[in-house]
Amino acid sequence: MHMRFDVVVVGAGPAGAAAAYAAASGGLKVLLVERGRGAGSKQVYGGKVYSHYLEEALGDLKGAPIERWVGKERLSIVDDAGRTATLEYEGGSTRAFTAHLTKLAAWLVDRAASAGAVFVDEVRVDSLRRDPSGRFSGVEAGGELVEADVIIDAEGVNRLLLERAGLVERASTRDLALGVKEVVRIGEKEVEERFGLDKGEGLSWILVGGVTGGLPGGAFVYTNKDTVSLGLVLYVDAAARAIEEPVHSMIEKLRTHPALHRYWADGDVVEYAAKLTPESGYRYMPRRLVADGLMVAGDAAGMLLNLGYTFRGVDYAVYSGYMAGRAAIAARDRGGPTEENLRELYEEPLRRSRPFRDLWRLRGVERAMEGGDRYFRRYPALMGAALRSMFELGESTPSIYEALRGAAEESGISIIGALVDALMMARSI
Amino acid sequence: MSETAGLQRIRVEDLLQRDSWDVDPRPHIRLNAEKCAGCPTKPCTRMCPAGCYVEAGGSIVFSYEGCLECGTCRVVCPMEAIEWDYPVSGRGIQYRTA
User: Fold this and answer.
1) pLDDT exceeding 90 applies to what percent of chain A?
2) Which of A79, A159, A380, B9 shows its CA 20 to 30 Å from the CA of A338?
3) What does the domain layout of chain A look like in residue ranges?
């Protein structure tokens, strides 16, 4: 069987679906290939999406499977003893929603199909093909070849195809984080009552410290309509060296955590999922995002921002995919998708874009967070001890300074060192 | 009241039962036993979120059936002993609410 398209998009996640939508909207003949059964069946993420770039790419979010608009943000530092300090933000306007990516990706694929893209599922692409001149000319799946003027590789974080094509090295554990999550059904009323939410309002909650046993990474809790998504993110390199119990028992420890389990007590665990993610998108980015006849988008392109207290993956994926789709259209009108054209029409505009510049600008945060032990174990310990002295009063009443000094002595941390770290972190931001 | 109530931890075998599956009889992961045997640290036993790699009598017993398709084993294996690809034909894990 011989098939030929203007564009073949590999992977129907947020990046691939947005790429197919953009390219098909411009009149190109687009094939969107997905390895899973139906759209969305292999999609995993934490649980929150910023809407700005989705609205920009798609025009609107009509019919999007939004669970809740996030109206409450929480950030907690937990020490090894379970003492918790929480910062809560509410009363602002909402910019993000919770959703199941399985459903959001399916909705994006519907939009791509409505724009004219051909969607095929249950097809695992085995390799990217080049013609004798070295130009990428199609994809091979199960021994069948589909030819295309341009390939948009949105294969995700596991870059099997790019590795086989020799365009990227085998990923290093230092550049990746592992996310695991459970979805627990507790009921709509319970979601709102237990988390103090208005009707339809959502919560986004990031926790660091004791929740990962002091390992670099953190925990997250997102509320959906009648379920809660809770999970852990662990930096793979540090975890592989220092983890003491299996990841699956760590997430169960989180679910049964004495300070947390009441939020989803009596709930039903309806799903358990795992995904690798770029820990630092900027570092995970391939040296080049284009080749002759090829563009890379989404996780595969390192389009994910990790700030420790929030993450931007899905919206950046949609943004990069959309730009790749638009570039495919512009390239056609400019003599074809040569490397030079794609660099000018996709890579360079992407590198000048706000998301990319933020990835670059904020890369220091990611590096600082690899300082590991300090941020994820010792500072939480310092905080726990200081707040205990401030709030658990008996015979004497310490000043804040005395509480801090006592806590610093107890946890073996110099206050000056902590201040220097705080300054370094502030500077890198 | 389900068994998830209270503080009882769920074993990984039971966690995986909460998911939907269409397991391919053809394995999508292959382990090079020779390379694997020389591994001093065996991070796969702790890092695989599905508990697919279990140490028994000094060597790894592995099963691909409960694979969540994250790819972690492939990158953490210091021996590069794991040959890993996605399942074909839409088989494997079928996520619904992730």
Assistant:
1) 83
2) A159
3) 3-64+100-168+286-361, 174-278, 367-428
For strands B29-31 and B82-84, give the pairing.
antiparallel
In b/e form, how buried is each residue of A56-72, taking b as 16+ CB within 10 angstroms? Answer: ebbeeeeebbbbbebbb
What is the CATH architecture of A3-64+100-168+286-361? 3-Layer(bba) Sandwich (3.50)
Spatial contact of B12 and B51, defined as CB atoms under 8 Å apart: yes
**Token duo for residue A370:** 């690899």
Q: Alpha-carbon distance A323 to A345, whole Å?
A: 9
User: How many cross-chain Cβ pairs, A to B, lie less than 8 Å apart?
Assistant: 158
Which residue in the block uniquely carries the two structure tokens 């259209």? A329
Q: Tell me the angle at which helices A14-25 and A101-114 cross, rounded to the nearest 10 degrees.
A: 10
Reduce the DSSP state of residue A225 to 3 states and report it: coil
Chain B positions in Cβ-Cβ contact with residue A122 (cut-off 8 Å): 89-90
Looking at CATH, the fold of the domain delimited by B12-94 is given as Alpha-Beta Plaits (3.30.70)
pLDDT-derived band at A423, boundaries 50, 70, 90: confident
Are A209 and A197 in contact by the 8 Å Cβ rule? The answer is: no
Query: pLDDT tens across A276-325, in order?
Result: 999 888 899 999 999 999 999 999 999 999 888 889 999 999 999 999 99
CB B52 within 8 A of CB B73: yes
Smallest CA–CA separation between A258 and chain B, in Å? 8
Residues in A 127-166 with any Cβ partner in B closer than 8 A: 142, 157-158, 160
A316: which strand partners? none
Q: Does B54 touch chain A (CB under 8 A)?
A: no
B4/A184 CB distance under 8 A: yes
pLDDT single digits (tens) B79-88? 999 999 999 9
- Least CB-CB distance to B68: which of A40, A157, A274? A274
Instruction: Kindly provide the ipTM of the predicted complex, given to two decimals.
Output: 0.94
Which residue of chain B comes nearest to A252, CA vs CA? B9
Chain B positions touching A175 (Cβ under 8 A) are: none
Q: Return the domain boundaries, chain B.
A: 12-94
CA dist list (Å): A233 to A148, A230, A250, B30 = 37, 10, 11, 26
- Comparing CB atoms, the residue among B47, B93, B98 nearest residue A100 is B98
Check if B23 contacts A (Cβ < 8 Å): no
B58 interface with A at CB cutoff 8 Å: no
